[in-house]
Amino acid sequence: MRGGGAGAGLSERLRGAGGLTVEERWAVALLDPEAPTPPDLTSWNGSDPGQRFAVYRNNVVVSLVESLAQTFPVTCELVGEEFFRAMGREFVRARPPRSTLLARYGEGFAEFVDGFPPAASVPYLADMARLEMHCLAALHAADADPAAPQVLEAALREPECLPALRLRLHPSLRCLRSEFAVFSLWDAHRGELEISQVNPLAAECGWILRSGLEVRLLPMCAGDCDFVEALARGNSFGEAAEAAAGDREFDLGRCLATLLRWGMVTSVNGIK
Amino acid sequence: MVASGETGLPVAAGVGLKPEHFEQVIGKAPALGFVEIHAENYLVAGGPMHHYLERVCARYPLSVHGVGLSIGGEEPLDRGHLQALRGLLDRYQPAVFSEHLAWSSHGGIFFNDLLPLPYTRRTLERLCEHIEQVQDALGRRILLENPSTYVEFSGSSYSEAEFIGELVKRSGCGLLLDVNNAYISCINHGRDLDEFIAALPLHAVGEIHLAGFHRDRDSLGAPLLIDSHGSAVDRAVWQAYESVLERTGPLSTLIEWDNDIPPFETLCAEAARAQGYLSACAVREA
């Protein structure tokens, strides 16, 4: 940011009679359909500038809702296009983007859906939005190569050293725990599972990751999420296994095999 | 292909690169002069965007088009965004970087649209200051694109062409002449297109954009054209393009199609049509 002096002076000079700059008036009117059309607009033929200004108002909201629809396709399918777009317009007006990078737009959407009364009849909608936001983050996360097989073999040759190892995981890997069957619902909406086989009220946990160029959703157990989150916090292999031990379903061998299969272990430190 | 004196981008027709077409661009390697990307879509850490762009760049010259700098804005430029753009340009070394005569952010909010500004001495000075900062930060001369607009400001003291002429003269930036935008604005504001084009600093044009619009009407029933980038280039815009080329000679030309994205073949056919005009123009010049 520029120092206050020059910047403030410039914006002072730009202020019109009403004390607001052109952009300040536009910024309010673009997101608030009730706000008056900014003054000082004209048209060559005397047609209504307000109707012309409405093109901008429409472009802003429609393009941002479209960006949400692209990020949350299954969330959109669950409630239908019309409902989703109406909800999207409310979100856009309440939480317009703070960044020019629309690949990040949608943070906070799940929380908004949670508090959006008309969506209350679809209790798993917010978690589906959480899942799809994780998908977007995983898609654009940094690249990282899997650790070389020799590194892992060396680690496994000395089992007594395993607990002290520090594993670094792929930047795309993230966890979601839901009270609802959002992973199965997602599969069903992608045509990979029969919807009649899904009980939406069954709790599910899982991983979201990118392998190669593709985002994958893997239903896992709660312990698998505990394990991954412990490693991500910087805990050792042993500490992570301990963190996951509370879940009886947790199987350390299976968890590790799944991580390796998808190339999610990118380095191993602490090998003697 | 001859490199344009202005930019280093080949004087040929190119297309806007869309993720929907990544595989085809790489797999089919069609005859395109260059590809153009929207910078902000590639300001992500990793994944398919960079994977494909690296492969496309190995085959085609690249133009990077920014849509988020808000150069026409009242507020100071976003330094972080400039730095991120510099990183992208350093990584991919495009032949040209362009941005818009518009604003898109205010008060920390990004509106995702190219919004108009009054043409006054103050806005001219502010834009020149911003362009200078952008050119310094990016270490290169930029092209600035003429806007498509739906309203005019009663406070404007320059015509659009005069304003652009002053900008180019004072800041040293080049002009990205969007012929579709020029046509839209002339229809929307009752201006004569030939006069408008003739009044622009045509010597500074480094690239041309062509795109489709859709038709609406204002409150009096007069045509109001909306810059939708969602259809084929209109016949009137092809005509305007041909008459621009008669004045400027052949120039790097981009087909933009950002919404309702068509099959890749349709996009390439539009580029081939532009290439036809370029070749005819080059023959006439020879």
Helical stretch tally of chain B: 9
Helix content of chain A: 40-55%
Mean model confidence by pLDDT of chain A? 92
Spans of at least 5 consecutive residues with low confidence of chain A: 1-14
How do the helices and strands follow one another from N- to C-terminus of chain B? EHEHEHEEEHEEHEHHEEEHEH
- Tell me the helix content of chain B: 25-40%
Total helical elements of chain A: 12
Task: Spell out the CATH superfamily of chain B.
Answer: Divalent-metal-dependent TIM barrel enzymes
- CATH class of the largest domain in chain A, named Alpha Beta
Beta-strand proportion of chain B: 15-25%
What is the CATH class designation of chain B? Alpha Beta
What is the total domain count of chain B?
Answer: 1
- Which two chains share the most extensive interface? A-B, 53 and 55 residues
Shape category of chain B:
globular
Main sheet summary of chain A: 3 strands, antiparallel
Question: How would you sum up this structure, described in words?
Answer:
Chain A contains twelve helices and six strands. Chain A is mainly α and 272 residues long. In chain A, helix 4 crosses helix 5 (81-94), helix 4 runs antiparallel to helix 7 and helix 10 runs antiparallel to helix 11. Chain A is elongated, with a radius of gyration of 25 Å. The model of chain A is unreliable at 1-14 (pLDDT under 50). By secondary structure, chain B is α/β, with parallel strands linked by helices. Chain B has a single domain (13-285), classed as Divalent-metal-dependent TIM barrel enzymes (TIM Barrel). Chain B is globular, with a radius of gyration of 18 Å. The two termini of chain B are 14 Å apart. Chain B: Belongs to the UPF0276 family.
